Fold this sequence. Notes:
Elements: H1 10-25, H2 37-52, H3 62-78, H4 115-123, H5 127-130, H6 141-154, H7 157-162, E1 190-197, E2 203-208, E3 214-219, E4 223-228, E5 234-239, E6 245-250, E7 256-261, E8 266-270, E9 275-279, E10 287-292, E11 298-303, E12 308-312, E13 318-322, E14 329-334, E15 341-345, E16 350-354, E17 359-364, E18 371-376, E19 382-387, E20 391-395, E21 400-405, E22 412-417, E23 422-427, E24 432-436, E25 442-446, E26 461-466, E27 472-477, E28 481-487
Antiparallel strand pairs: 1-28, 2-3, 3-4, 4-5, 6-7, 7-8, 8-9, 10-11, 11-12, 12-13, 14-15, 15-16, 16-17, 18-19, 19-20, 20-21, 22-23, 23-24, 24-25, 26-27, 27-28
Helix pairs in contact: 2-3, 2-4
Amino acid sequence: MTEDVQKHSVHTLVFRSLKRTHDMFVSDHAKSISLDDESHKIKMNAKLKTEYGAVLHMPVLKEGKDRVSHPGGLQQSYSQPGDDPEYLITGTHAYPSGPGVALTADTKMHRNPSEGGIHSMALALPPSQARQDVSRTAASVGDIHHHAGAASRSHPPSSALSLMEGGGTRNSSLMRKAPTMPKPQWHPPWKLFRVISGHLGWVRSIAVEPGNQWFVTGSADRTIKIWDLASGKLKLSLTGHISTVRGVAVSTRSPYLFSCGEDKQVKCWDLEYNKVIRHYHGHLSAVYDLDLHPTIDVLVTCSRDATARVWDIRTKANVHTLTGHTNTVATVRCQAAEPQIITGSHDSTIRLWDLIAGKTRATLTNHKKSVRTVVLHPRQYTFASGSADNIKQWMFPDGNFIQNLSGHNAIINTLAVNSDGVLVSGADNGTIHMWDWRTGYNFQRIHAAVQPGSLDSESGIFACMFDKSESRLITAEADKTIKVYREDDTATEESHPVNWKPEILKRKRF
């Protein structure tokens, strides 16, 4: 009785043939590699140099001197292309290194590099590279496998070593380190320095002039007031808006002040005549914020009509209408680098805009609640956004998420950051939190008392800003006052220590 032979497809047969070939020629990973005297000697030399390099110059034993002189010869031998070290590092897998290599009886078996082989390669670096700054990131073992594998296909062994520039000098630095949270930088605490009264309504916006002589505030009493920064005295009041003034900005390129309000108006004031010289018409609802482009004569405003508009300052032309948000656009910021415009909205998204095309470059949807404020870091290519869920930090140009700053459990109306890495968040309940930008450590919390005669409910921060010297923090508040804070000169690291507990799990993935 004949059995039916099962028929297989060509694909299956080819695959089985490949598998048989692979099983025949691949090294047996279950068996440990036998200890080789030469490899052991190389490993001990590497360990000796990395662990005890600092004391090898001391005249203790002749044997010690021999060991010091040996690695130089090792480096020389490794740099010659004709050499044949025990473990050929040709890739991270034990297969022939290139396509079309025929397997014959004479084919040399390529095994994965051992730890000793890796350490000996690290040792063979030139001394100048070995003494590199410790702060440079050390290459992990995986990187060395990868670099060495790439190098063997296209470079002689000497150039393979030159690819490993990132390797540190410590033996442990070649291993992958456990994740750690960097320790926050110490910042002196801030204290209330001056309270300025004069407005008859909520103070909604602040701008400091480029020369740092005065600053300007916009209020719900429909006025714009200019104050002397040094003394806190009122210099000038400007009237013209017929509703709350929600945004003010002072130009660095011309003697102009720009303001916007809930009356849908955007005004340009000439500060030489203290008169309105231009209006920018187009928004269909209240205008909530505005910002000036730092390098070109362009003004960007955002509104409750869910749009941001780009205006030519001189001609008053509406260059672009940036549409895409589905709710009130609460905040807008401009910068010289791409993306040149950033908006935050009550639809809980942040959009990065291409100014030339007038289109969205990226939409960031991580926030769960309205984004009322965005701030750009003055030195780094990063920014932060504030919402009722938390504060998030992002990386330009694509808006890659960096970290969450959680703990300010309130509606965050405003953010400010200075060059020292102090991030300030001001909330609707009147609290101010101070953060270390790099680590997200909350080093101070302030809740200033409301102005006498005000209700406790009139405790709220609507805007805050550092002056140009970054030594003063000015806040606009719901008790109709402007409060000025400064660093506490008497504080030291001993009197106000950093109460820091590393939380590795703190950095959420979204």
